[in-house]
Design brief:
The chain has 8 helices and 7 strands, in the order H-E-E-E-H-H-E-H-H-E-E-E-H-H-H. By secondary structure, the protein is α+β, with helices and mostly antiparallel strands. It has 2 domains: 106 residues, Orthogonal Bundle (Arc Repressor Mutant, subunit A), CATH 1.10.10.10; 61 residues. The strands form 2 sheets. The chain has a 4-stranded mixed sheet with strand order 3-2-1-7. It has a 3-stranded antiparallel sheet with strand order 4-6-5. The chain starts with 5 loop residues before the first helix and ends with a helix.
Length: 184
Amino acid sequence: MSGCGLHRCHVSVIATAPTIDVVQIDVLGAVGVHDGDQAVTGRALGGRRARVALVALALARAQVSTDRLAEMIWGDDRPATWQVALRGVIGGLRAACADLGSGQQLIVTEPSGYRIADGVAIDVDLAADAVRRAGALQAQGRHQAVLELVEPVSALTGSSLLSGEDAHWLDAHRRAIDALAVRA
């Protein structure tokens, strides 16, 4: 798959998802959130802490306790006022993404933590779905359609997940992404 950059390939995988008012989080490559019309990436999303928090919540696919989320963001170097700082990180993400979708809040507060709102698509999940759909197409003998679905997925690598971060909680997710690309 020469000449295919991660972002362009990534978009091919994303194109298989519904696009009407669907908010999507991209955790591979440049971390961002988009809804088809608008995107929030880079500095507009926030700094390192915002990107780590967003990716951690997206990959959890469930509630993450405030204590665990703080550990994922700061490791052993939590500030003394980490609870206030964490609320600031989440508030900043919410504000940055407030105009996306149909007014739905991206991050939901739970009694002891946070989670990504229902109905938000995650690029890694869309890639896994493409591989599953390709299996069904393969059984039907639709080989060209299979190639179109899995070619972008085969270019994904776990190292594109929060590259530059070396936190241990990322290891299993990176291995899963690499395994998904191999299956493709």
